[in-house]
Amino acid sequence: MNTKELIVGTANKQLIERGYNAFSYKAISEEIGIKTSSIHYYFPTKTDLGISIVQSHSKALADTIEKTKDKNALEKLNKLFLYYKRLVQDDKVCIVSALTSDINTLEEPLRIELIKFSNEVIAWTASILEEGHSQNTIKVMTDVPLKAKMIIANLMALIQITRIEKSKESFDQMTGLILAELTIN
Amino acid sequence: MNTKELIVGTANKQLIERGYNAFSYKAISEEIGIKTSSIHYYFPTKTDLGISIVQSHSKALADTIEKTKDKNALEKLNKLFLYYKRLVQDDKVCIVSALTSDINTLEEPLRIELIKFSNEVIAWTASILEEGHSQNTIKVMTDVPLKAKMIIANLMALIQITRIEKSKESFDQMTGLILAELTIN
DNA sequence: GTCTATATATAGATAGAC
DNA sequence: GTCTATCTATATATAGAC
After folding, report:
1. The pTM is what?
2. Domains along the sequence of chain A with CATH
3. pLDDT tens, A71-102?
4. C-alpha distance from A72 to closest chain B C-alpha (Å)
5. A5-25 in b/e burial notation, b at 16+ Cβ within 10 A?
6. Measured in whole angstroms, how far is the alpha carbon of residue A60 from the centre of its chain?
7. In chain B, which residues have their Cβ closer than 8 Å to the Cβ of A179?
8. Which of residues 5-24 of B touch A (CB under 8 A)?
9. pLDDT in tens, B110-124
10. Closest CA in chain A for residue B156
């Protein structure tokens, strides 16, 4: 991993673990043992760095979509839920949640990137629902894009609730409930 | 409204409109025309002020519970949903959402207050579900506390999604869906 | 490409006059 | 109870040596 990637990775980790507050050049610099001025060499402004973080999530999602493209809808759905489960296990929140509280203070280019990523996640979820419908493994719903939005909203919020409770148990219970309601058995 | 209440109200507004970042003594001081040192007179530390903000939400909730205590379960449920709809209309998020991203950076007393308020909201929601069940207006569910948690999680997340989309339309569609699934008609 | 040094702004907080 | 003045820490950011 080169320095640039290390910076993005570290910044991302701090952002989703401790919030937008803890995401600072100084904190990154201390963690990876490099001066803040060196971070500015790669990312002149904090907005530049923020954009790179969101784009790294975008890229990871694209990879997952590519890797699972030959799996069936149920397997894809499980993959999606597994992604959020991992976040919970690591006491992290989704990047969308992490930035949404502060959305009114973000510079326009970063806000645009965040919206773009959020739409990609929802679009993939919707495509899984459509596919599951045609494979007769996922229940038909009247408004697929709306349902996709609700599923993602649910996962985002469940992570937050789980965090407050400091118990990872109810996350599994609740995702179990959502999956049970979605799938045909 | 006295100065102390004015400070809490202004701080709260900034917190849920622009996130934990924008919630600073300086920003409050500029908005209400008082020096930061005067704010410190009322709230020595930022944690003190944060606690007062959360407590003000707690008090508002207690008032709502008291005021609606003679209404039926469906009316209470509508009141609950209306509270979140108002937040969306004002481009605000729920206080729980606003602070959860940063929960790992909050001082213990503030974190405790946040958890307490979150539990109050969930408990009220659960009691509405129970009441609706006995009045035969709300569908029976296996695990009421879990369902209550999911409803609140849904509302919190819908606000966030709505914010990203800059469209208030899907909030109504989605809460409509939730209410339709919950109620007996 | 990484460093030292520095600039400027702001953070939360305190002492003490009035 | 509100002010001025000040403290210390930290923020993002830049200039320029190596």
Report:
1. 0.95
2. 56-182 (1.10.357.10)
3. 999 999 999 999 999 999 998 999 999 999 89
4. 27
5. eebbebbbbbbbbbbbbbbeb
6. 10
7. none
8. 17-22
9. 999 999 999 999 999
10. A157
